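In the design runs reported in the main text, the only information available to the sequence generator was the tokenized backbone. The following block is the verbatim input for one such run; it is reproduced so that readers can re-run the procedure and compare outputs position by position.
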């Protein structure tokens, strides 16, 4: 989209639907995503754009974003944290997988419940949430993968219930971490 000079809502609405689909092809479900993106851009401009939306309180802005067709909690929270710089913790599949494997959660709690766990355990800081989430994503991609996680070289191994149930063939001496990952209350299950 950068190559096509198509990175802001006005430009996105100016390009043809075919070109927009072409730009999104590598992301999968590109037709649906193109439709939803155009819909969101129309809504965003009608709402007054960034400056108008930035003046909204976080809770109201989140509710408004969630009312836009095609915007779910994760997408709304991505926008709130990364674009509007609000202290909202983003929950994604990586976060859920790590929390399950470390047994910070039992079963499959709702998005909101898992979000509350992080938000109640960590200081309400945009930069912290931003970095914490980015580190979870890196960890999930490089170590805590869905299939065949690389537990033998993971610093969280000594705190991890998953690896106790599925011990790696070659446990690493690296693993001396304790169980506490939060600055407020330590780990807990919900
Ligand atoms: S020990 Fe394995 S399952 Fe546990 S957090 Fe690390 S990579 Fe994930």
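Verbatim output:
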């Amino acid at each position: 989209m950068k190559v096509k000079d198509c990175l802001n809502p006005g430009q996105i609405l100016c390009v043809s639907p075919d070109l927009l689909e072409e730009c999104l092809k590598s992301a999968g479900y590109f037709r649906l995503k193109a439709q939803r993106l155009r819909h969101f851009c129309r809504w965003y401009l009608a709402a007054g754009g960034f400056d108008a939306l930035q003046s909204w309180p976080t809770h109201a802005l989140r509710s408004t974003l969630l009312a836009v067709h095609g915007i779910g909690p994760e997408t709304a929270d991505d926008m709130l944290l990364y674009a509007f710089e609000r202290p909202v913790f983003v929950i994604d599949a990586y976060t859920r997988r790590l929390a399950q494997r470390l047994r910070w959660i039992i079963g499959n709690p709702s998005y909101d419940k898992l979000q509350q766990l992080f938000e109640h355990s960590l200081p309400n800081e945009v930069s912290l949430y931003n970095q914490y989430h980015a580190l979870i994503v890196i960890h999930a991609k490089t170590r805590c993968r869905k299939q065949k996680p690389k537990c033998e070289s993971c610093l969280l191994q000594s705190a991890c219930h998953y690896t106790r149930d599925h011990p790696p063939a070659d446990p690493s001496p690296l693993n001396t971490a304790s169980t506490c990952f939060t600055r407020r209350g330590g780990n807990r299950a919900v």
